[in-house]
Amino acid sequence: MSEQKLLKLTVSKVDAPVFDGDVLSVHVPGAEGEMEVLADHEALISPLKSGVLTINKAGEEKVKMEIEGGILEISNNHATVLI
Amino acid sequence: MALKQVKNKIISTKKTGQVTKAMESVSAVKMRKSQERAFAGRPYVHAALRILARISNSNEAKNSQFAARRNTGKTLLVIVTSDKGLAGSVNSAVLKRAETVIQNSDNKVETICIGKKAVDFARRERLVVLEEYVNVSDEVTVEDVYAITELVISKFNQDEYRKVEIVYQNFLSTFEQEPTLRQILPLDPAEIHYIMQGIKPKRGKFSDNSEPSDTAITYTIEPSPEEVFNSLVPQLVQIMVYHALLESKASEHSARMVAMKNATDKSKEVIKGLTIKYNKARQTAITAEVSEITAGVEAMK
């Protein structure tokens, strides 16, 4: 497998940080439909609706988590999901 | 002082010392818990504020009703204190700050009180209280502040208010807290930046997260800036209130622990002084008695 650029992802809940690290991609239920965020995504802010958030780490099993909504913000290859 | 009186005083001081000691240990446990919660929440609040700061710089945001500056109307002040006293100057510091705000304000101030001490304060000062919340649990959840946020936002949307501010005790360290006044609405990028600075503790955990300043990012905002703004702002206001509550709880327990520690130390000191006094009085009594007996023996010779 070729070296792929990773995306820095921070998933945070109000009372505790949930996930922080480099990932291949993250799949989120956006307000306008599902989307897959890869590295070097353009700067974006979007609310999320309820659904399943899937974190795809390199060479590891996918991590899925249920969310009830939240905010997605991407800038400088750093995605922040607040749930 | 008579022997008996001193003895009683020693006993009662000892009992007070026991009580303060117990309160100290209880507060110490609560303090640790609430500090952890306050710290755990900080990265989230920080991220939320960063997003807020960035979008409030955009042009769409400036036209939003949440960000537009208003020149007329009343001020809504949210006062956050604890329910119980015996915590040093935490509450009085916050209330003093609130008082200055009210005095310096040239228009009418209405309040929302969180915590019994704030309610008492508002009664004493005869302030207009929109809503009061007492007995907020130590384990504050976001749901708890939902009602408060709803009220704040609906009131603000009625255009009656010029601004909404919150005053609470910010937690710096176990020995140091400071009363803090912050503007919640309308959103002000400079103010948000200031809050972000204030959120970082002076030292220890979480104190070294330096943020690169990247203000010149143009975001794609989906679905539309207005929509995002309208759904984001209530959420972020809620986070700001929640954060204020957490900080206030952490400050309260820390201050109480320190106050109780001081009280326990003081009671030990007092007991020491009283014991010396007691021993002296006892010695005087014995000496007097002995000299009386010796005098009696001498007289009989």
Topology record:
The complex is a heterodimer of chains A (83) and B (301).
Chain A lengths: L6 E6 L4 E7 L1 E6 L2 E6 L5 E5 L2 E6 L6 E5 L2 E6 L2 E5 L1
Parallel strand pairs in A: 1-9
Antiparallel strand pairs in A: 1-2, 3-4, 3-6, 5-8, 6-7, 8-9
Chain B lengths: L2 H54 L2 H5 L10 E7 L9 H15 L4 E6 L1 H9 L3 E6 L8 H16 L3 E13 L2 E10 L3 H11 L20 E2 L3 H76 L1
Helix pairs in contact in B: 1-6, 1-7, 5-7
Nearest-integer average pLDDT of chain B: 82
Please summarize the sheet with the most strands of chain A.
Answer: 5 strands, mixed
The second-level CATH architecture of the largest domain in chain B is 3-Layer(aba) Sandwich
Main β sheet profile of chain B:
5 strands, mixed
Q: H/E order of the elements of chain B?
A: HHEHEHEHEEHEH
Q: Just give the CATH class of the largest domain in chain B.
A: Alpha Beta
Q: What is the CATH superfamily label of the largest domain in chain B?
A: ATP synthase, F1 complex, gamma subunit
So, CATH architecture of chain A?
Sandwich
Distance between the termini of chain A: 33 Å
Low-confidence stretches of chain A: none
Q: Structural class of the secondary structure composition of chain B?
A: alpha/beta
